[in-house]
Amino acid sequence: MTSCCEVTGDGLQSSHTSTRFADSTAGWLIGQAIKALHAEDDEAEASYRRATELLGQDKAGTEWAARLLKEAYAGDPMLRWSVLHVLADSAPAGAGELLAYAASERMTERDRESRACESPRDMEILVRTMAIEGLTRIAPRQGVEQTQKQLLAVLERQEEPALRIEAVKALLQVAPGSAEMIRKILPEALHFAIDLKRADARELQAEPKFEKQITCEIAAAPAFGAAARAKAPSCSCQEYTP
Amino acid sequence: MTTCTFNVPNLDATGDTLYGPRICNQPFIDWAWNAFDFDQGDWDDGFGYESVCDNRRPLSRTMSGIWCLTYSAQNYQNESYDSNILQWGCRFARNAIDELDGRCGDGSAIARTTWGPFVDDRTELYLGYFAQAVSLRAGSLVHEARHADGRGHDAGNRDSSWGYNGAWRWQVCWLAWFAAVGTRTSAAMKTAARQRANNILNSEFVQHPGFNV
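Structure tokens for the assembled complex are given below, as produced in the milestone run.
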């Protein structure tokens, strides 16, 4: 029996599978690079550079990246995104082919009738976006012509419009004379992507026009790094000041 | 009651290795718990109420999203609405969101906000939310907060235009500002935020805004 005000939510079990980075030198280097990529300390950048340099010289680098991508497939988009990031910055032999393959992977159909705003499908788009951006990063090492071919193949195979726009941006960055080729492949409705502007984020504003009337508000957070013995600010209502 | 399984993603790759220890701070937890109106019944039974510092659990991962939303501006204590959304995003979110609930979901959405007369106003976060990168979780909170304030989408689950000033625009603005000048974070969190902002610009507006970031 529950009381009138008791909240009952869902139940959750956690399943944890560790990724086997340490099974090879290349796998270990990918793991170290991912750790450094997601760290904030001063040494992280140098560690990342060192790990990707070594991975770039490892003949098994791409094979191990492919293996990790496959193992991580279910439910871990950010691990796949990170592997692709590392692959792009290390550029071992064959990296371009793997990045092009990952960028072209078929997406499930978008459900525009769904009530969902964001969905797990958006994370799949993000993973493929990283693969496309990765191709631009390896262009200086594997050659512009090869990269242009791979990006044109992505543009032809990938049906998701958001990813086709990413491929157009990448193509124009790698080979600025690609506009005519892009026009021949893209449907007219997407031709605007060729002239897409790049905005400085600092020019973007959300207009804080509120739908609801605010009369009082919740206090701001405690100071960053406040000692554990400090008291949290009161969450009671405070007078609203814009 | 629904029961589900959360396949814990790699902790480094989602940013939970970086942010997890930061949220493990009693004044922050006390403040966030009240500011976003968490309830025990929505976050126990495996969601992490019993172990808020365990970054494999949804509650810790939600707290990390709130931490990122709160402290990513260099001078985060300036929350004036005359400034940019990186400054006031948390202020808006904590005042607009009525309550935050952890739920299994059906796999179609990562979050959903219900609002309006004669309904229990609430924002539910689902398994896909907890698997996102920390910076994207913060962006999703801004999106849901816009709904919680009463602004829905005006073209199915898309916004008609940038000028509509809806949840997609707000999310893009927060992510773009974070990517440009966010602090106390990693290079990866910024790159993911910029890419997600562009993905939204390229798919969630009926009339494309005409730019990327």
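Residues 16-156 of chain B form one domain. The mean pLDDT of chain B is 96. Further analysis is deferred to the final report.
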